[in-house]
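Reply to dn_fold:

You asked what the input looked like. This is it:
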Amino acid sequence: MHSYTPPPPTPATAVHEAAHAVVGLIEGLDLQSVTVQVPARAAFDLSQSHTIRSYISVSIAGRIGEDRHRRLEATFFDHELDFWSHAIAGGTGGSCDECAAMRAVMGALPGATAAEIRAAYREVEAYVIETIRRPAVWWAISHVADALIERLTLSGEEVRSIVDRHIDLS
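and this is what came back:
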């Protein structure tokens, strides 16, 4: 019998998960842990009430952080956002970050037109892009990602101690 050893995490994966974690802390969510071990994820305690914008922001922060790491800044075309909204409306959307974001947008805007859904998504997307562009936020994401590459999993407290060196979360 062969044993499987997952490959080491990539810097892009570490930045992706670090961006979820840091934006979640900025949004006031209670970060439990973040890991780059398979399955990579940032885990939050969602038992407290938060805004829909917070959930959407955290959902899309990974992609936006990963894009910045690759020196890109990209947004989806209208037809791509429409694909996600149709998948959610049709019950075929999964649990990926974009599905979670679109599910939150559509849940907040029942009966909205495609244009209204796109506008709401783009408003939060612009906010997250601007947030991640801030030097202090980018430094926090980068340092959390470095710690993830080194240790693979961090507790919420460990992430917060890194972030507190760069951003005042109080």
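The chain has seven helices and three strands.
Hope that clears it up.
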